[in-house]
Amino acid sequence: xxxxxxxxxxxxxxxxxxxxxxxxxxxxxxxxxxxxxxxxxxxxxxxxxxxxxxxxxxxxxxxxxxxxxxxxxxxxxxxxxxxxxxxxxxxxxxxxxxxxxxxxxxxxxxxxxxxxxxxxxxxxxxxxxxxxxxxxxxxxxxxxxxxxxxxxxxxxxxxxxxxxxxxxxxxxxxxxxxxxxxxxxxxxxxxxxxxx
Length: 196
Fold this sequence. Notes:
Blueprint (H helix, E strand, L loop, with lengths): L10 H22 L2 H8 L3 H8 L2 H9 L5 H9 L6 H13 L3 H14 L1 H23 L6 H21 L10 H17 L4
Helix pairs in contact: 1-2, 1-4, 1-8, 2-3, 3-4, 4-8, 5-6, 5-8, 6-10, 7-8, 8-9, 9-10
């Protein structure tokens, strides 16, 4: 008797889906990449992609080999007084990068600095999974959201490079609370302060 339904998957199938997803997300970006097209490129049914990964967002996180899921962490930065959001964002970033997940984040960041394909994936991750979620909630003027988001990203990326990649002292070994108190106001200004 012939079985119906989805063909059973294996590690090769999962790897093929992830490879097709990385390619699609790097070339088309998160918004324009589709599960159907990714499945087609991997030679599988779209239902199998959903079976393995659930949503497009979860597929993207798996394709990125993301050490964290921003959807689970960003509410921490959003809850609390709006005027302290900059410090909370810096504190959140430091808590991730100082955790065991930080080693994977540093490796991804280093790779993005020297590889355009990885840079595209990381940019998509930062824009679609982090900035849209966090900054979109914190910036009241939609006309300035893109500029303000990129300014916040520049501050956070600079902090990450100096502290975790270059390991510039005394920043590299400074207490995270001290860093949040010093850099948080800059981030806050990018979020809601006057721009020239």
